[in-house]
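Hey, does this match?
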Amino acid sequence: MNNEVAESVRRRTQWFLEKWQNGLVSLIGLLKGKHVGFLNMFPIEISPWGPIGKELYVINCLFVTWDYQKNGVGKRMMSSAIDIARSTSRKWIISFGYTDPKWYLPVSFFEKSGFREISRNGDERLMMLALSGKAEIPKQMVSKYTYEPVEGKIVVDLFFNRFCSTSDIEAYRVMRVVKEFKDNVVFNLHEIEEPGVKEEFGLPRAFFVNGKEIFWGYEAPESGIRQAIVNAINCS
């Protein structure tokens, strides 16, 4: 484990400890005693990835490592999550679902577990499993970001969350690189759990340079962050 990852683990461990005290359910998938997967289920009110709602659980992330898929690990974790949710007063379980890429929170997996689609935002679908009673359909987070230029400056807007290791590591890379440009850059930092940020911007993770989103999927490399800022300077 390199220093960058170790520092992220330290930051996120404290974050998870606080969330567990507030109702986060984290499950580890085991196969012959080996850790091969995980599932995280949040009370919707503290979910860093949305959606916006109440009285529900949200499965934000569910994954089984490549070599151990098709062994029923995901199904067992899901079954355990449903049992835990049924033992509480939460009315539904919500999950995000996708058809592309096929490996990430696949819609078909949730359908087999009894979930049904209740709304869409682009490629992102909200899947729902009713547990007990009626509830208000949660609102998917939709970007409300608008670029606000500053004369003579490069504007960097960063939105990040601690839940996702990719977002956390990327955020600290952006912070380091921005410092290299000193007064040439106006840096707007938004942590999704700051009061009102989720509702105002609708972005759990994003990185913009002069209003242009910069996205790698994985953690943005420092060289790429630096080049994006240099390109903006050269175009200004």
